[in-house]
Amino acid sequence: MAHKIGIIGFGKIAQDQHLPNIKANPDFELVAVASQRGLKPDEAKHAFQDYREMLKEVPEIEAVAICTPPQVRYQIAREALLAGRSVLLEKPPAATLSELYDLKLVADKVGRTVFTTWHAQYNKAVHEAKKALAGWEIKRLLVTWKEDVRHWHPGQEWIWQAGGFGVFDPGINALSIVTCIMPEPVFIQKADLQFPANRDAPIAANIQFSAAHGAADLQAVFDWRQTGPQTWDIEVETVQGLALALREGGTKLEIGGKLMVDEPSEEYAGIYQSFDTLLNERRSDVDDAPFRLVADAFMIGRRVQVEAFED
Questions:
Q1: What whole-number distance in Å separates Cα of residue 178 and Cα of residue 163?
Q2: For the CA atoms of 191, 208, 149, 120, what is the dihedral angle to 10 degrees?
Q3: What is the mean pLDDT of residues 148-163?
Q4: Is the pTM of this model over 0.90?
């Protein structure tokens, strides 16, 4: 029997990814949507402006996908869990690590599932890169994640507010790939965070990582000011001479300069396949590794003020 699911927060990511992938997966049935703007897709039987009303009025809902801005995600997720619903969390999963930790405790206490979804990890090229790097010692890592915020987040003021993550909203996708494919943990050694004079979240970041094994050149560059072609690349070299690159957000894999994987993204299809398994097995999957790197960057990062930014 299909899992009856609701969506809370019906913005761009919910419309572009969650809605079509729920519709395409026979293991799920969309029964309700809660949207402050009062949006109602044809696929949903019920629509509400208040998520609390949805949880109360549609008891058959087994799980909810929470696609709100991160600043309010914790309270919604906690109430959903206490109301007996499992929760799928868009990235980033909460506003703070403490909030995410508490959600895991609550889910365990009430016997429900909480699932952190790092969509970039679901690309085949990422899985193949992880296998190729297993057991090797890394000499060089360069993450280049540059995109146009005006294209991807037009008019979304919440991303510029404190707790909105700024350039780490897309940058955390890169970090989710790094934490997945690296054969050993990496840590934030240094971070320069560039804040527009009129914003409370960074528009760019330069990061230097360290690794437990010792000296290595491990860096990341995030920037929201790139126009034209967008850049989502991760390049890795091992001490043993293996050269590997993930291109276009992790959908293409090159090894030794040869294209090994080039497949269209099926990230959210993979997310909902995994969510089905977790619900059936009544267990949670809370991966906080990418989130910890973001938190560490903000904790030890140097704030650099740059020119004001307007949409």
A1: 22
A2: -130
A3: 92
A4: yes
Same domain, 104 and 197: no
Model pLDDT for residues 226-269, shown as the tens digit of each residue: 999 999 999 999 999 999 999 999 999 999 999 999 998 889 99
- 176-205: b or e for each residue (b if 16 or more CB lie within 10 Å)? bbbbbbbbeebebeebebbbbeebebbbbb
Q: pLDDT tens digit string along 117-144?
A: 999 999 999 999 999 999 999 999 999 9
Domain residue limits at 190: 120-263+296-306
Percent of the chain with pLDDT over 90: 91
Domain boundary among 116, 140, 174: 116
Query: Which residue among 23, 40, 91, 139 is the active-site one?
Result: 91
Least confident of 15-24, 92-101, 199-208, 213-222: 213-222
The reply to whether 246 and 167 lie within a common domain is yes
23 is catalytic: no
CA–CA separation, 136 and 125 (whole Å): 18
Residues 168 and 252 in one domain: yes
- Cα distances (Å, whole numbers) of residue 166 to 82, 118, 169, 171, 200: 31, 17, 6, 9, 8
